[in-house]
Design brief:
CATH topology of the domain at 420-623: Rossmann fold
Largest sheet: 10 strands, mixed
Number of helices: 17
Shape: globular
Strand content: 15-25%
């Protein structure tokens, strides 16, 4: 049942910034364009050329000094800022804003040599040494003090510099060491647990330590879940995930507060990695601590649907930021260097990738990095200025993208509005992939990405949001594999159906409390009443096993499923599809329950693509939701809305064939006018300021 015929903004955009100061780089107008700039790697002549080329490309913001600690402080207390002073002045003279880093992302060798105790440690006791980056334990007080000192020195020196537009705290915090098992981390973990639980008895209850004689008599006896003879306590593992995310956040907060005390009017951010490959940090928990959300994203060379994964990650980033415009802090102009088989981007792909992020809320497009390094571990990572220099397709693409972003200046500040939300929760991700589960093959993102793909193919704008988010403006809410859920969040989801919306919940959802205790009485636990079903047992499938499922009505057809099935009984719902074969023949596989003035669907199995497509079609129809406009397969369509009533239709053709869609208005990229029919060349992009 559709709640409205309009496209409501389910996550209204407030003018109040997330962190309390102006929520955008100061002095940055139009869409931002630039990247990481590392002048310390280059001689003076190259630095002079860099500024000239930035002007030529239309660059208006760069991140500086991210990995400059050892250059700025070659020995303890000995600072060399002349080169950075000069660079800041040149960038300002060229009209280029600076996102200045705290320079703490990689401690200098003298620091780890004098204080090896700050090095992080793996679960098996291996110490991670100097020689890469992020060779620090964020919980160690010695490292923390050095980092805060460096941030203080940077802030004091550049607090009044006219180029300073944004503080860039550290870099990709937790990227290489999302979990540290060192003694410093163990001590901090114990303190965190004592604050969380208040008493050792409360911890024992939460952790279920009556099992395997694990009862603790004092917090001092607790360690991180280091390598053990067999499975570690699952709630201990889950709490260590929570603690680790908070410890990394605490590191950011301390650096941020140091900067804020000296430069209270300069916005502060750090670059997230909100993509389908990064699960170590709960970015929904972090979001309110940033003045503006920044994200890094890289496509997977071996993923044929990499453009769809990009869209998912961009929608997740927008959801983390509450719908506000955000900064794409890093992506690549072409190939990276760190995947097993790196892939050069096809003609037009760099532009499509960049504008796909803009379509989904990014108001600044940046890269790693400005100039491709001649030495070091990332020398074969592409950049805006490649090894080949100006005489290259990459440089031509860099200049062309700069022009495109200038042409799209009217888009700045507009937002995406969605009638569909997909619930996403980092704690459920952590908990669902713990050991000792019905199958070790289940991956939290499997259903989320499979369902999202079908929404993407239909041009349905989707917000990826936390289960505790305001869901009141959505007509359809999809809940994939929400294994762990609180009572409050389960009630939040149920309220969608009760007020007239449609809810889809998939297998292995609602199973445990936030303490990872099973909700007794039958699965799917927290969602039993909402869904009108009761599962008595899971029937997980072996690697080569599949089952056949037949549906009727909105799910008419026969489909194949694998990995997961359940012995499910109806307690109020109606069966939409049933198992045809196997141990569960005749039992429900998909159900629909009338709830309030809405409905709640349950998918108790993992469909292959055709079944997933049919399921998505069915719930979209139930909710009365359609795509932005009708478009051929492989053509991405997203609409952004301005506060003044303007709207911008992004049309991205990911195919090698010409495509047509219905659109009217001015194409900001070409200056041409569409009057009902818009033809998009293979691999091309159009952005229509609609009439």
């Amino acid at each position: 049942m559709a709640l409205t015929d309009a496209n409501p903004s389910a996550t209204p955009v407030s003018s109040t910034p997330l962190g309390g100061v102006a929520g955008w780089p100061t002095g940055l107008t139009g869409l931002g364009y630039g990247g990481d700039y590392n002048p310390e790697q280059w001689p003076q002549a190259t630095r002079l050329e860099d500024v000239e080329m930035m002007i030529e490309a239309g660059v208006n913001i760069v991140s500086v000094a991210i990995f400059a600690w050892a250059t700025l402080e070659p020995d303890e207390g000995q600072y060399e800022f002349g080169w950075l002073d000069e660079m800041m002045d040149r960038l300002h003279a060229a009209g280029i804003r600076v996102a200045l880093a705290t320079a703490t992302a990689s401690p200098p060798p003298w620091l780890t040599a004098r204080h090896p105790e700050i090095l992080p440690q793996l679960a098996d006791g291996t110490v991670l040494g100097q020689g890469g980056r992020q060779s620090y334990a964020v919980t160690h007080p010695v490292f923390r003090q050095y980092a805060l000192t460096m941030a203080t020195v940077m802030a004091e020196r550049y607090k009044d510099h006219p180029a300073l537009a944004l503080w860039h705290v550290d870099n990709e915090i937790g990227c290489h060491v999302p979990r540290d098992y060192s003694d410093a981390a163990a001590s901090a973990f114990r303190s965190w647990l004592a604050e969380r639980y208040g008493s050792i008895d409360a911890l024992n209850e939460a952790w279920g330590t009556a099992f395997w004689s694990q009862r603790y008599s004092a917090f001092e006896d607790i360690l991180p879940p280091r390598t053990a003879p067999t499975y570690a306590n699952p709630t201990q593992q889950l709490d260590f995930d929570r603690f680790s995310s908070r410890a990394l956040l605490g590191y950011y907060q301390d650096l941020r507060d140091t900067l804020r005390a000296i430069t209270p009017d300069v916005p502060i951010t750090t670059n997230f990695m909100a993509s389908t490959g990064t699960k170590g940090m709960d970015y929904f928990d972090w979001a309110a601590e940033l003045d503006v959300i920044s994200n890094d994203h890289y496509t997977g060379a071996d993923n044929d649907d990499r453009h769809i994964e990009l869209a998912f990650s961009a929608d997740l980033t927008r959801g983390i930021g509450g719908g506000r415009p955000w900064i794409l802090m890093e992506h690549s102009t072409s190939a990276v260097n760190w995947q097993p088989r790196n892939r050069t981007k096809a003609p037009g792909e760099m532009l499509r990738n960049s504008l796909a992020h803009v379509a989904r809320g990014a108001d600044s497009v940046m890269f790693f990095q400005w100039r491709q390094s001649a030495a070091g571990a990332e020398k074969f990572h592409s950049a805006m200025v490649p090894h080949a220099g100006r005489d290259s397709d990459v440089w031509a693409n860099t200049v062309a993208l700069g022009q495109a972003l200038r042409d799209l200046a009217p888009v700045q500040g507009s937002t995406v509005r969605s009638r569909v939300a997909m619930v996403f929760d980092y704690e459920a991700w952590w908990a669902s992939e713990l050991d000792s589960h019905p199958t070790q093959e289940l991956r939290y993102l499997d259903q989320a990405q499979a369902l999202y793909k079908q929404l993407w193919l239909r041009g349905v704008s989707t917000d990826v949001v936390h289960p505790g988010a305001d869901l009141s403006g959505y007509d359809l809410v999809i809940v994939p594999t929400l294994y762990l859920v609180s009572d409050a969040d389960a009630a939040n989801v149920a309220a969608v159906a009760e007020r007239g919306g449609t809810v889809l919940v998939t297998y292995f959802s609602g199973i445990v409390t936030p303490e990872d205790h099973v909700r007794l009485g039958g699965y799917p636990g927290a969602f039993r009443d909402l869904l009108g079903v009761r599962t008595e047992e899971f029937y997980t499938l072996q690697a080569t096993e599949t089952v056949t499922v037949s549906g009727g009505g909105p799910l008419a057809g026969t489909y194949s499923a694998d990995l997961w099935t359940e012995k499910t009984h109806l307690t109020g719902a109606q069966a939409v599809a049933v198992h045809d074969d196997g141990a569960l023949a005749g039992l429900p596989a998909v159900t629909r329950n009338a709830v309030g003035s809405g409905s709640a669907w349950y998918s108790a199995t993992r469909f292959e693509e055709a079944g997933t497509a049919a399921l998505v079609e069915a719930v979209l129809a139930d909710a009365g939701v359609t795509g932005e406009i009708e478009a051929p397969a492989g053509v991405e369509v997203v609409r952004r809305h301005g506060a003044d009533g303007a709207s911008f239709l992004f049309v991205l053709n990911h195919t090698d064939a010409e495509a047509s869609v219905k659109a009217s208005g001015l194409d900001l990229l070409t200056g041409s006018t569409a009057t009902g029919d818009l033809t998009i060349a293979p691999g091309a992009v159009a952005v229509i300021q609609e009439s």
